Amino acid sequence: MILFIIGLISGIIGGMGIGGGTILIPSLIFFTELNQKEAQGINLIVFIPVAIVALIVHFKEGNIETKVSKWLILGGVFGAILGSLLAMKIKANSLKTCFGIFLLFIGIYELLKKE
Amino acid sequence: MDTIVLKLIGIGFITGIINGLFGSGGGTIIVPALVFLIGMEDFKAHATAISIILPLSIISTIIYLKSNIIKLDISFIVVLGGIIGSFIGAKFLKKIPNLILRKIFGIIIIITALRMVLS
């Protein structure tokens, strides 16, 4: 049940357009026995069906700039391979600390950002 | 190749690394990049970000799966909640003032981050 609720809350926040993963991963760490790597893996796989649904809606409404996205994906593919392999090499606890520092920057950015 | 294309490839590369390394966070890199560097409107940047992060997340998922990191039974339950939640979230999106929401979100994230670093 706790897993369903964690998914539900992150889904709501993600659907609102602010990082669902930044809520999902820490929640899984705090409230379940999963380690950092396992929580990250779940976030990745959970994102796929949710993103497909969102993407279909956005495509129909013409919100996606495909001219821009193809180049971003090209660079992104290499980054994704490198980043994922790196994550597999790092110990779960060290990865948790790095993730925490990354989160801290996101939080500060959100607070300081002017609309 | 002009500089804008190189810039896009570079932004994509960094997004991919972050998204693969942390299993999340691609959007937090790419949305501001699209808004500030390309001058895209905010809602288009969010939509375009998904079209980029989806293929990157699929690649990362495959690498994580091959390393036996992903527990599929747990993922399935979280996915169910996630899909229902994102429908609710998408509906709420237009009703709650974004600025207040973002400040609350920022504070929660900072507290969470400190807890993760210090524990």
Q: What is the oligomer described by this structure?
A: heterodimer
Q: In total, how many beta strands of chain A? A: 0
Structural Rg of chain B: 17 Å
Beta strand count of chain B:
0
Distance between the termini of chain B: 47 Å
Global geometry of chain A = globular
Largest sheet of chain A: none
Question: Residue share in helices of chain B?
Answer: over 70%
Task: Give the largest interface.
Answer: A-B, 93 and 89 residues
> How would the global form of chain B be characterised?
globular
Mean pLDDT of chain B: 90
Q: What characterizes the major β-sheet of chain B?
A: none
Q: Structural class of the secondary structure composition of chain B?
A: mainly alpha
Radius of gyration of chain A: 16 Å
Alpha plus pi helix count of chain B: 5
**How many helices of chain A in DSSP terms?**
5
List strands and helices in order, with pairings.
The complex is a heterodimer of chains A (115) and B (119).
Chain A: H1 2-15, H2 21-31, H3 36-60, H4 66-89, H5 92-112
Chain B: H1 3-22, H2 26-38, H3 42-66, H4 72-92, H5 98-118
Helix pairs in contact in B: 1-2, 1-3, 2-3
Q: How would you sum up this structure, described in words?
A:
The complex is a heterodimer of chains A (115) and B (119). Chain A has 115 residues and is an all-alpha fold. Chain A has one domain. Chain A is 83% helix and 0% strand. Chain A is built from 5 helices and no strands. In chain A, helix 1 (2-15) runs antiparallel to helix 2 (21-31) and helix 2 (21-31) runs antiparallel to helix 3. The N and C termini of chain A lie far apart (37 Å). Chain B is mostly helical and 119 residues long. Chain B folds into 2 domains: 1-70, no CATH class; 71-119. Chain B has helices at 3-22, 26-38, 42-66, 72-92, 98-118. The model of chain B has no long low-confidence stretch (mean pLDDT 90). Helix content of chain B is 84%, strand content 0%. The chains are: A mainly alpha (115), B mainly alpha (119). The interface between A and B is large, with 93 and 89 residues.
